[in-house]
Amino acid sequence: MDETMETLWIIINLAKSQQKLGLEINDEQISEMENNVGNIDFKRAAEEEKLCRHDVMAHVHTFAAACPSAAPIIHLGATSAFVGDNTDLIVMKDAFNILLPKLARCIQRLSTFAETYKSLPCLGYMHLHITMPAQLTSVGKRACLWLQDLMTDLESFKRSRDSIRFRGVKGTTGTQTSFLALFDGDHSKVEELDRLVREMAGFDKSYLVCGQTYPRKLDIDCLSVLASMGASVHKMGVSCRGFPNC
After folding, report:
1. 3-state secondary structure of 122
2. 111/105 Cα distance (integer angstroms)
3. Is the pTM of the predicted complex or chain greater than 0.90?
4. Cα–Cα distance between 155 and 147 in angstroms, integer?
């Protein structure tokens, strides 16, 4: 439901920005949309999707039914990717903002553990194999190995989050033709529309060029850093499992 509400706010922010730049959208239409953001009829949306075979447009039609006076200006000039992809980018950025302090807290607590047990000896093994003891190390030093990996993950999370850009106000194939038509070919107004909607979504940068969707390389990058953190945690688990044999 949260993602659906985020989608509706993107639609509302588009309308607010279009109104500010001179399109015929009145305050009553904006208020009607704002007052119905939480009024999501999921049953109706499911029925609409059966008819139009399109998940985003099903919700657009459902929202329009809840806001009859605003219906003509909902999603004006936009494509479903404007709604869906920009929402996904907001959700991804928000997700990193949730994970980053949690990871930082984990690092802080693990650093306390490492300091506490820095002098507690344990036997280190080559290749983590109990038949290949090497020499003494300490529990705290082993924890520092995990900390180093997690610090790398923390930096990777920050880099990935900061690399997320807004898809922006672009049409079906990544051009701005539909918005240029709305503003009678005024490029400056379309650029200002893009800026207004982007800033209302909490981004300081948009992709200069995209197709229908935002670049899917971003998905690979985000998945890679998450997988890397998973590998770090797995290494910690395997190492802890070996402690009883030390």
Report:
1. strand
2. 10
3. no
4. 12
